[in-house]
Amino acid sequence: MGSITSKITKVLSPILTAFLVSVLVIQVTYHQNKNLDDQPPSQKVSTTVIDGAGTISPSILFERWFADYHQQNSQIQINYQSIGSGAGRRKFITQTLDFAASDIAMTDEEIAQVKRGVIQFPITAWTLAIVYNLPGVKKLNFSQMVLANIFLGKITRWDDPRIAAINPGLTLPNLPITLVHRADGSHTTLILTQYLSAISPEWRRRVGSGLSVKWLTGIGEKGGSLFLSFRGTEGAISYYESDFASRNRVSTATLQNRAGNYVQPTIKSSMKTLDVVDLPENLRVSIINPAGKDVYPLVNYVWLLTYKSYPKTKGQALKDVLKWSLTDGQKISSQLGYTPFPLRIVQRALAAVDSIQNSTQAPLEPSPATS
User: Fold this and answer.
1) I want to staple 333 with a disulfide (CB 3.0 to 4.6 A). Which of 42, 71, 317, 338 is the partner?
2) In a shared domain, residues 189 and 214
3) What is the reported pLDDT for 185?
4) Distance CA 193, CA 218 (A)
5) Is 360 exposed, middle or buried (0-12, 13-18, 19+ CB in 10 A)?
6) What is the CATH classification number for the domain harbouring 114?
């Protein structure tokens, strides 16, 4: 009899244990939910969701900023979609976003379409590198004239005397130069072509600047195919964000600035670029190819676009996020390859954030989509 009881106990013991654990879980869950339900409305924490979209260039930084901020302030959720500067501005104009980010500041014509008004200011900055695929060539100088002539298709081989003249002692290979450029619209193409337009009247006249241009030479690739084509073509030249080039161990050229000095794309040289350019009253300024001894010529601001007023809760939440990004967030920038702001730029941007108004009125209805 005892052995039978013992066998029954062994069989039932796990079942009884599982039953008792499930009862305990139900009881704990019940009391937790009951405690939440018993809280007065004033003590319940609601989540404020802030939606933004725009340029791809700060996406890595924004992802880190907004995740870190949410970890410290769980009641604030910031969503950002990397859809491009133009698409972000269009959505912002039609008021289907809370904020946008753009590699180009909004024009007066665009601002006039926004009934709620616009506040825009720099939020971060990034650097564009000219990259090349020449195994064994560790350091390569490009003067402004030589670089422009390569992109114009006038210098077609790496051992061209004009390249050799500015790289004394360097053995250059007898290889054709293959330009690998974006075939689709890109913020990197915009900044590069703005720079080429600034240093070459012929480029400005024949090609101009834009997110997408009619290239005079080279191979066009879209998105990720660009890097695959560049990496697989010995003798290729292309252009990438400097942090991307660094992460992928791609050789970056030393560029001649307006002062005639050759400068590498580093955090230090890009900070000097920001430091020599004054922000005007409306905060809209190009920092491409500025004057300065040690500046790097290919640095660009990212502008944050907000409305002049928001419903109180969302407005205050957005202001708090942006203030954190311009202060604590700047300490993270250089870790991810972005340029931290000098104090005077931080102060100007913070003043713009402070001008955002918290309104008790509901926001205006979205505007009809514009083409």
Assistant:
1) 338
2) yes
3) 87
4) 15
5) exposed
6) 3.40.190.10
